[in-house]
C-alpha cells in the first residue's frame, strides 16, 4: 500500500507542478491555448477569418462633448470649454486637442448615436460588450452572458499557431466567458513595454529560464512514464500533444520576436510615445502582424494626470484640466496607430476601435466650483478606423444638447454585430447557457450599413 504522506524522490509536489506548468502571463495557459486552436478548427470545419480587431479601451467613459461630438452652439451649461476643429470630412469636426486625428479624417468613422440604459461602470461594460443589459454586482464582476472577446475566441480560435487569439495590455475590464467555460481568457501582458527591461516571461529565455525549462521537459518525461500505467484510453496521449507543442512554443523565436519592441525604429517608437500606453499601442500593432486576432489596450491614466480613468466627475477633479493632459496623448497614440496600419497595408484586415463603456452627461456639473460631468450612456461616441469599412464619415447624430440620438440610433448589439461580421462570426450563433437553453450571442442588433 502506498502511503499518502510520502513522495518518491525526484517527483513533483502539486505546488511544484502548478509552478512549473506550461503557463503564460495570465490565466490562459499555453496548453489550453493550443487545445482551443484545435477545437475551434474542428468546430467550424472551415478556415477561420484572417481579420483582427484592436480595441483601445477608455476606461471610465470618455465624454463625447469633449472628444468626438462637440456642441459649440449648444446652450450654456452644456457646451464645454473646448472648441471643435474641422477634419477633411464635412461634418466630422472633433476636439481641438485632437489635431493629428483631425488630419486623418478620411480614415475615421465616428459613431455618434450609440446608446444604452446602464448607469454604472460594471453594468455598462456588460451591456456594451455582450449586448445584453448588465447589472451592477460585487467582485469578481463576471458577466451573465459571454462577452465579445470570449465569443470571438471560441468561434474563431487563434489566427496563427502559437499566438494567443486574445492579448490584453495589461487587462480587460470585467471580462468573462459566462457559460462558455474556461480557457477563453485573454493572455495578459502586465509588464510596461516602455520599461528598459521589458520582456514577456515564459516567452523570453533569460539566465534563469534554462533550468526551469529543463524542469518542464522533465515534467513531460514523467507524464510519458505514467502513460502506460494510468491511461489505456489515450487521454494522456492527447494531453501530451498540447503540452509538447507548448514546450516548443517556449523556445520559438518567431513568437518572442513579436514582443521585441527593440526591432522598431526610434522614430516609430517616438511617434507612438515613450510612455506605457504609447508602447502598448505599438506592441498591439506588432501582435496583430504576428497573428493575434484580438488585442485590447487599457488606457486609464497618462503621465502628469491626476485622474485614474476617464470618469470625469465634478466631485473628483476638473474635467477640462484633466482632458488637456489626457487628450494630446490620445491624439498621439491613435493617430500613430492609424498611420501605421495604413502604411503597412493592414487597413483592410485590422479594425481599430476606440471606445469606453459609456459617456458623461451633456450638462456640466459643479462641485465646490469644480466642473465635471456625471455618468451618461444615452448618447456616446465610438471611433473606428480600417477594417476595410467605409471611412471618412460620421454615423448617426445627437440632438443640439448632445443628450440623445437624433438620427440613426444604435444599440450595443449593432456595434457588436458589426464586429462579429467583420471577424466572420455568424450572427445566428447560439450557445447553451447553464440551464442548457440555446442562447444567441446577441439579443438584438444588426451590422451598421454605413460601415459595411
Number of strands: 18
Query: What's the number of helices?
Result: 12
Give the SSE string: HHEEEHEHHEEHHHHHEHEEEEEEEEEHEE
The mean pLDDT is 83
Strand order of the largest sheet: 6-5-7-1-8-13-4-14
CATH superfamily of the largest domain: Alkaline Phosphatase, subunit A
Q: In oligomeric terms, what are we looking at? A: single chain
How much of the sequence is in beta strands?
Answer: 5-15%
General form = globular
Compute the separation of the termini in Å: 68 Å
What's the CATH topology label of the largest domain?
Answer: Alkaline Phosphatase, subunit A
Describe the protein's architecture and organization:
- The N terminus is likely disordered.
- The relative contact order is 0.20.
- The chain folds into two domains: about 80 residues, no CATH class; about 325 residues, Alkaline Phosphatase, subunit A.
- It is built from twelve helices and 18 strands.
- With about 450 residues, the chain is α/β, with parallel strands linked by helices.
- The chain is globular.
- The strands form six sheets. It has an eight-stranded mixed beta sheet, sandwiched between helices. Strands 2-3 form a two-stranded antiparallel ribbon.
- Helices cover about 35% and strands about 15% of the residues.
- Helix 2 crosses helix 7 and helix 6 runs antiparallel to helix 7.
- The longest helix has 25 residues.
Amino acid at each position: 500500500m502506498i502511503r499518502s504522506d510520502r513522495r518518491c524522490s525526484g517527483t513533483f509536489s502539486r505546488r511544484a507542478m502548478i509552478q512549473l506548468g506550461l503557463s503564460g502571463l495570465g490565466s490562459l495557459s499555453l496548453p489550453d491555448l493550443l487545445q482551443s486552436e484545435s477545437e475551434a478548427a474542428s468546430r467550424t470545419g472551415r478556415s477561420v477569418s484572417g481579420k483582427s480587431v484592436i480595441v483601445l479601451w477608455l476606461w471610465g467613459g470618455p465624454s463625447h462633448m469633449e472628444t468626438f461630438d462637440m456642441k459649440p452652439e449648444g446652450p450654456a451649461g452644456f457646451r464645454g470649454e473646448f472648441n471643435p476643429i474641422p477634419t477633411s470630412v464635412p461634418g466630422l469636426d472633433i476636439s481641438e486637442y485632437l489635431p493629428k486625428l483631425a488630419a486623418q479624417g478620411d480614415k475615421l468613422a465616428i459613431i455618434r448615436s450609440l446608446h444604452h440604459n446602464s448607469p454604472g461602470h460594471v453594468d455598462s461594460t456588460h451591456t456594451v460588450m455582450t449586448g445584453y443589459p448588465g447589472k451592477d454586482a460585487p467582485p469578481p464582476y463576471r458577466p451573465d452572458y459571454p462577452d465579445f472577446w470570449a465569443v470571438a475566441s471560441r468561434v474563431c480560435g487563434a489566427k496563427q499557431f502559437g499566438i494567443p487569439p486574445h492579448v490584453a495590455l495589461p487587462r480587460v475590464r470585467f471580462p468573462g466567458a459566462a457559460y462558455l467555460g474556461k480557457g477563453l481568457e485573454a493572455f495578459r501582458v502586465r509588464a510596461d513595454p516602455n520599461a528598459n527591461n521589458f520582456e514577456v516571461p515564459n516567452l523570453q529565455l533569460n539566465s534563469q529560464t534554462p533550468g526551469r525549462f529543463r524542469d518542464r521537459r522533465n515534467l513531460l518525461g514523467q507524464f510519458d512514464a505514467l502513460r502506460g500505467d494510468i491511461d489505456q484510453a489515450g487521454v494522456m496521449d492527447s494531453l501530451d500533444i498540447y503540452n509538447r507543442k507548448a514546450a516548443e512554443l517556449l523556445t520559438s523565436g518567431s513568437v518572442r520576436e513579436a514582443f521585441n519592441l527593440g526591432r522598431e525604429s526610434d522614430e516609430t517608437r517616438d511617434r507612438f510615445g515613450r510612455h506605457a500606453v504609447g508602447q502598448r499601442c505599438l506592441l498591439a500593432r506588432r501582435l496583430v502582424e504576428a497573428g493575434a486576432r484580438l488585442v485590447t489596450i487599457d488606457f486609464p491614466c497618462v503621465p502628469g494626470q491626476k485622474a485614474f480613468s476617464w470618469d470625469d466627475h465634478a466631485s473628483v477633479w476638473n474635467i477640462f484640466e484633466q482632458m488637456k493632459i489626457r487628450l494630446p496623448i490620445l491624439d498621439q497614440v491613435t493617430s500613430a496607430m492609424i498611420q501605421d496600419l495604413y502604411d503597412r497595408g493592414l487597413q483592410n484586415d485590422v479594425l481599430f476601435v476606440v471606445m469606453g463603456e459609456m459617456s458623461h452627461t451633456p450638462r456640466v456639473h459643479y462641485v465646490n466650483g469644480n466642473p465635471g460631468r456625471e455618468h451618461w450612456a444615452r448618447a456616446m461616441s465610438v471611433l473606428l478606423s480600417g477594417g476595410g469599412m467605409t471611412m471618412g464619415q460620421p454615423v448617426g447624430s445627437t440632438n443640439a444638447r448632445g443628450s440623445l440620438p437624433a438620427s440613426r440610433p444604435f444599440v450595443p448589439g449593432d456595434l457588436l454585430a458589426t464586429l462579429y461580421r467583420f471577424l466572420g462570426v455568424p450572427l445566428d450563433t447560439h450557445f447553451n447557457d447553464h440551464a442548457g437553453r440555446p442562447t444567441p450571442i446577441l439579443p438584438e442588433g444588426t451590422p451598421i450599413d454605413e460601415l459595411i
